[in-house]
Design a protein that fits this description.
This protein is mainly beta. The chain is built from five helices and 31 strands. Among the domains are: 140 residues, Sandwich (Jelly Rolls), CATH 2.60.120; 117 residues, Sandwich (Jelly Rolls), CATH 2.60.120.
Length: 456
């Protein structure tokens, strides 16, 4: 029994000695320098191409250390922006009254429910074309006293001459119950294109010719009136994207499969979309995109997406699609684009680029002016920090931007087992473990003595 307690205690001690990931576990490091002025307690820096290239998909093999090799907690997340989005909801007002005036105008009164939003614009939907009207909008709370919200604003349709149409009128935002629309020149008198030509003769000679036009009336018709409100909302967390170049390494044509394979190099950036530029016009082909990190002669390729690309121009008609969305979150050093040519001439790319996310690392700097970033290496478990859960729930925070220095190969070596055990923290752990062992031994010895005394 004593031997089991001793073994468990020793295992506990060894686990404590090996719990922390030391800087020598990583392949590379960079100095991280603070700006001259620290804006707040949060610091940040942007992950560059080299860090993308040498880190795992979920950034498990990256750490921050102070000068005395103390690990600094951090969180990695997408760089996002805060956008202000304008919303224009439709407000349903009921028609309260209608009136046609002697001056060839109409007035329509609408009623707003108090619980509804306040309108700031209206749109008069109509099927009529080739017109111009003036609209005045009033507001009131009792239908007796009216306040002008906007006066003589034009709505028009010039289809006969140009494809221009406007049916919307904006006005001041005021909380009235009733809104009145005054529309002028509701009925127009126009000349018919059909005419009769008359001639006056003088001694069998034409003295004068003139036309007589037939007149007809066109009455403006409102199919529907749509009132809209307007408000702005701050939206957090819109991802900021960046364009990443992809280097074309080689292009191979497979005459058996009738395909063209283009191979691309990447620094393992987190790509979402690939954009292509080609030297060919008037085509439409199916393509497939795959990715790999395998460096062997026969690598395993992972499917990322497929689509059709095309570029067609015929006279004034032009249609083009040269992008493909990637549906896998992994990051790869190599990409392969397979084009299915069939019996067509092969297509070659002039350039290839990609759109992807940008990541940043945030941490509490605690007034430290310089740190080191260690990264790269295999079989390194992902860290678990309290700061991750704290900052993850907060809205996007702009920390002081720190500067990444030059990349260095990490030549630090692990301490010998003897030196590791002699480190102060390990001596402390050893003393605690030894105390536990001694206490357990005393406890076992005491229990044994008590049992002997109890026996008859």
């Amino acid at each position: 029994m004593n031997k089991n307690f001793v073994l468990i205690s020793l295992l506990f001690y060894v686990t404590l000695c090996q719990a922390k990931i030391a800087p020598y576990s990583f392949l590379y490091y960079r100095d991280l320098k603070a700006p001259e002025t620290l804006e707040n307690e949060i610091a940040s820096f942007v992950i560059n191409d080299s860090l993308y290239l040498h880190t795992e998909d979920y950034f498990s093999n990256i750490r921050l250390y102070s000068k005395d090799n103390k690990e600094i907690p951090f969180i990695i997340r997408h760089i996002t922006s805060n956008d202000t989005i304008t919303y224009e909801p439709v407000i349903h007002l009921s028609q309260h009254d209608f009136k046609r005036n002697k001056d060839n105008s109409i007035e329509v009164i609408y009623k707003r429910d108090k619980k509804d939003s306040i309108p700031v614009s209206l749109t008069l939907e109509t099927s009529k074309t080739n017109f111009e009207k003036m609209v005045t909008v009033y507001g009131s709370n009792n239908i007796k006293k009216w306040t002008v919200l906007v006066e003589k604003q034009p709505i028009f349709d010039y289809e006969k001459y140009i494809d221009v149409r406007n049916l919307t009128v904006s006005f001041d935002k005021k909380p009235f119950i009733y809104y009145k629309i005054h529309l002028n020149n509701i009925t127009e008198i126009k000349n018919s294109p059909f005419t009769q030509i008359f001639a006056e003769y003088d001694e069998r000679e034409v003295k004068r010719r003139y036309k007589e036009f037939y007149e007809y009336k066109i009455t403006f018709h409102i199919n529907n009136t749509i009132f809209k409100g307007k408000y702005k909302k701050l939206v957090y967390g819109k991802k900021v994207l960046k364009e990443y170049p992809l280097l074309i390494s080689e292009t191979i044509q497979d005459t058996t499969d009738k395909t063209t394979n283009t191979y691309l190099g990447s620094n393992r950036q987190p790509l979402n979309k690939i954009s292509l530029k080609v030297n060919t016009k008037n085509f439409k082909r199916k393509i497939k995109v795959e990715g790999t990190n395998d460096t062997t002669d026969d690598p395993t390729w992972y499917y990322l997406g497929n689509t059709e690309i095309y570029d067609v121009t015929a006279g004034d008609f032009h249609k083009e699609k040269m992008d493909i969305d990637l549906n896998r979150t992994g990051r790869f050093t190599k990409y392969r684009i397979k084009i299915y040519d069939h019996d067509n001439l092969p297509i070659t790319f002039s350039s290839v680029s990609a759109i992807g996310d940008i990541h940043e690392i945030l941490f509490f700097h605690n007034n430290i002016s310089s740190l080191k970033v260690y990264y790269g290496g295999n079989d390194i478990p992902a860290p678990k920090y309290d700061v991750s859960s704290v900052l993850a729930e907060a809205p996007p925070i702009k920390g002081s931007l720190w500067e990444l220095g030059k990349e260095y190969r990490n030549i630090e070596k692990p301490l010998s087992t003897k030196r590791q055990l002699l480190k102060p923290i390990h001596i402390l752990y050893g003393a605690l473990a030894l105390m536990i062992i001694v206490l357990l031994c005393v406890l076992v010895f005491t229990v044994k003595k008590v049992d002997e005394k109890i026996k008859p």
